[in-house]
Amino acid sequence: MTAILQTQKLRVEYRSRELRQAGKVALRGLDLEVHAGEVFGFLGPNGAGKTTTMNVLLGFVPPTSGAASLFGIDVRQPIARQRIGYLPELTYYYKFLTAEELLRFYAKIFGLARAETDRRIASLLKLVELESAAKRPIRSYSKGMQQRVGLAQSLINNPDLLILDEPTSGLDPLGRMKVREIIQRLKEQGKTVFFSSHELGEVETICDRVAIVHQGELKAVGTVAGISAGHANLEQAFLKLVGFQPNPAS
Amino acid sequence: MKVSPLSTLAVLLAVAFTLATSLALPAENWSGRAKSDNLFGMLFGDGRKLFANHFFTMADVYFHSGYYPSVFDQNAVAEKEIISTSHGKKESEEDEKNEDFLGRAKDWIDAFGRNFRITRHTHLEGHNEREILPWLRLAADLDPQKIETYTVGAFFLREHLDRPDQAEAFLREGLRNNPDSAEILFEIGRVYRESYHDLDRARNVWQLGIKKFLARPTDQQREDKLVLEELTVNLGRLEDEAGNYGPAIDWFERAQKVSPTPYALQDQIDTLRKKLNAAVPLTPSKLY
Amino acid sequence: MSKIFALAGVVIRELYRRKDFYVLFVLTALLTLAAGAVNFFHDDKIVRYVKDICLLLIWVSALVIAIVTTARQIPAEREARTIFPLLAKPVSRAQVIAGKFLGCWLASGVALVVFYFFFAVITGSKEHLWPWAVYLEAGWMQWAMLAIVIAMVLLGSIYFAAPSSTSTISLIVVVGILLLGTHLKVIALQQPEPLQSILTAAYFFMPHLEWYDLRDFVVYDMGRVPVRAVALATVYAAVWTWIFLLLAWLGFRRKNLTT
User: Fold this and answer.
1) Cα distance between residue C234 and residue C244, in whole Å
2) Of A203, A227, B95, B138, which is the most exposed, with the fewest CB atoms less than 10 Å away?
3) What is the value of pTM for the model shown?
């Protein structure tokens, strides 16, 4: 199978601002491969290195050593991000723009033709159910609506790979279900989805494969069934892999 | 103890009112600003005089259409000339126009930069002199005691803009603010004599000017003696014009005592003596 | 190039959706109209002081718009974290810098057009003269100068996280150059060593923004500056703009945006 997202011995070390203080190692030689068409869950406790991995993949943070590529192109090249969609954990959009203007702006960044842009904006606004609010500034949106705008912008270029950072965090149950539905639909369309999450139940439901990372190191990678083997469920396997010792009294 | 916010507010307002009534009188002595009769005085206090000087200089900058030395131009100090009544006199204007405070370009940056600066020494003319007036008006408002503002403004209004009525009004305002100014009285006299040809009023005003001048302390008289010279010389010319040659000679002789070039006045005195000999004499005491 | 224009479009949209520009324009208009309404010595032909005041307000407003708008671009993107979805698209950091610069510069240009049109209407109604070429030249030179200023502020905003620090420092530097630029060498010559050499070096190495101030030519009806000089000054502005943009890119390209 073709690996469309790949990291090799990826190491990221944040330099300390304090003199004589060692830097913080966020990733320690991470090797990861995500294949075309799969839904890949990226799991780990807080501070495990999930966000750092995503930051490297998206070009926000340069790796200290090792390599990372998208579709075989080094992530440092902007063109590597031509076929990806990214949904950040929280909504970070220009609040003075309307949803339609925001989508049009990103469409221009992807170099989409005007007619194609109009078509995609219409279908995405319909998908995220924001047609009636399309001409209102984003600042007037509720949190859920902002998250839906985020989802629409991540799909504006009809991406082959979708990178989602905790896509359901902060959403109500209805919103979560909607996101899961969209991920499922993308999978059916043959798209690749790479997402980080704390929601292990959610991961179990929709992921083909998962990776568990802890303290910057890859602890396990494989199918949900493979990792869960020998444990009651994925959560138990996860807790064991990250070295969590349950209190016998509880 | 529970205190209602409304009653607290009422108490605070009552205290503020009481303090205001008792502090109003002593506060009047804290600063003269509040008593000032114009807005600038209230806003800036005595600091307004600094602005007045700036605006007076602005009038000069306008008169030279922006060709003006900055504080950094080394040769500027000697050449910088505040607009004065000497402007308008052909010879002094031509001399001034030949002055070049910029000198030779120091380097290519300076040379290139001169493309974007006014480098021609010109003076406003053809009634464009009116453009300096707003700055003089502001300077007068900011510093009503700056006598030069009134005299310069009146000179341009009268001599270049044919507005003796405005010149007189401006000078009258200056006189109200500076009742002992011989300089302003001299300029008012010029308006009467040169614009209205009213010799009697000009004479009265100039004589009052001399009286005011002589009331000044001796050392100040010595410092300002040119004013006395101008008053006496102009009174001499006025009497000459009125045919009162005797008094004219008297004034020129008084002028000689304070003039830096007394010999120049001697010619006029000699001419007047000839005229006097040819005419019926008048008693000077009748004239003033 | 379309990506750069798309980025610039967002900056322009932001400017006209904020109140800064309108407040400054209304303030300029009100002060100019108030100054023009004053009657000095019953002479209604006096006009140069109105031109002077209006142009001064235009200069101050344009500088404030350019500096304040530019200073907040990158820090606001980082603070609101909008930079992340943006950089997750196929856009390079150099394009972000270029887009931000272009947006701020075009926005300043739009502001200048509005301001100069107002100026032309006010002075034209008093003087009955419409020296469009002179206004165009003065406006162009001011816009060229704003390009240097915007690039410089953009550079500052890479290093100073707070837009207020960047704005204040930039304003001091710009006003300092405008007031002292021409005279720095004269000041240098009056100083002891090594200050003399430092100031002389600064005189040659600083962007001479004061060249771009043609207000005197407009106010005193002194005609136009030679076209060749304007062309050379434009090239000089372009060079300095590139220098600052290059430095901004060097600072931004490897910057860790997550801290």
Assistant:
1) 15
2) B95
3) 0.82
